[in-house]
Q: What sequence folds into this?
């Protein structure tokens, strides 16, 4: 799913310090028969909106790649991971392969990116999506190093879904393991993920801050899942691979 990307809106200024005075003046102006900006009259419907005020610089689709040397410790992770833009927004070459048992889509991108070293690293990201007759979807994600400049980077694969799971609906949660299930309360659909090795699983509910007739409020948009590891690649040809299997029931 392409969860709604969060962008900066003019009415978000209401959460800035001092904007309350502007709202009070607008309401007094309206009481005096004047015509202030209607957006200044509307207030803030609920508290704690600042923590939901986040913006995206990339399209929040699925099977996205985050590669970065600036990852916070996974145990202290409190905000979305921001990966290198070239692998989030850059174009990938693609090909379709049809086999007897599966249909495979392969995407690749090779580029240079600064990942904490003295020089940019020459790395390639290869992704493969396989759909089999059992309705299972397998995602294979591989990072390949093409130079001799070592880097210690974290990476994560991001998925976004238009579902609401009570377990993850309130605040981000971080777990470690190789399995996770997400259940939509409205359709009872279940998304079962299984990864080929233990990794960090970070589930984040996505909210936008919107303006309604009763004032500024938050709106639930969907659920974001990041599956990640921290790896060190030293030599030319080193690679790290992750295999994710998704079953929907």
A:
């Amino acid at each position: 799913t392409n969860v709604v990307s969060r962008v900066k809106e003019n009415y978000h200024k209401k959460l800035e310090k001092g904007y309350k005075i502007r709202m009070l003046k607008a309401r007094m102006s309206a009481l005096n028969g004047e015509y202030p900006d209607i957006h200044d009259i509307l207030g803030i419907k609920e508290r704690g909106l600042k923590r939901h005020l986040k913006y995206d610089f990339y399209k929040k689709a699925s099977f996205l790649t985050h590669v970065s040397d600036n990852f916070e410790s996974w145990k202290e992770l409190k905000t979305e991971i921001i990966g290198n833009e070239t692998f989030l927004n850059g174009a990938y070459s693609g090909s379709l392969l049809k086999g007897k048992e599966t249909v495979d889509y392969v995407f690749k991108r090779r580029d240079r990116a600064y990942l904490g070293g003295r020089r940019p690293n020459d790395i390639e990201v290869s992704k493969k999506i396989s759909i089999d007759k059992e309705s299972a979807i397998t995602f294979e994600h591989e990072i390949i190093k093409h130079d001799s400049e070592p880097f210690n980077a974290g990476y994560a694969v991001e998925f976004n879904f238009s579902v609401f799971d009570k377990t993850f609906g309130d605040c981000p949660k971080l777990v470690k393991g190789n399995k996770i299930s997400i259940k939509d309360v409205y359709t009872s659909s279940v998304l079962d993920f299984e990864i080929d090795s233990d990794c960090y699983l970070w589930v984040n509910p996505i909210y936008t801050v919107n303006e309604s007739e009763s004032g500024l409020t938050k709106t639930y948009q969907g659920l974001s899942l990041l599956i990640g590891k921290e790896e060190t690649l030293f030599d030319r040809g080193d690679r790290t691979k992750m295999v994710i299997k998704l079953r929907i029931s």
Observations:
- The radius of gyration is 22 Å.
- The mean pLDDT is 84.
- Helices lie at 19-31, 38-41, 85-89.
- The first strand starts at residue 64 and ends at 68.
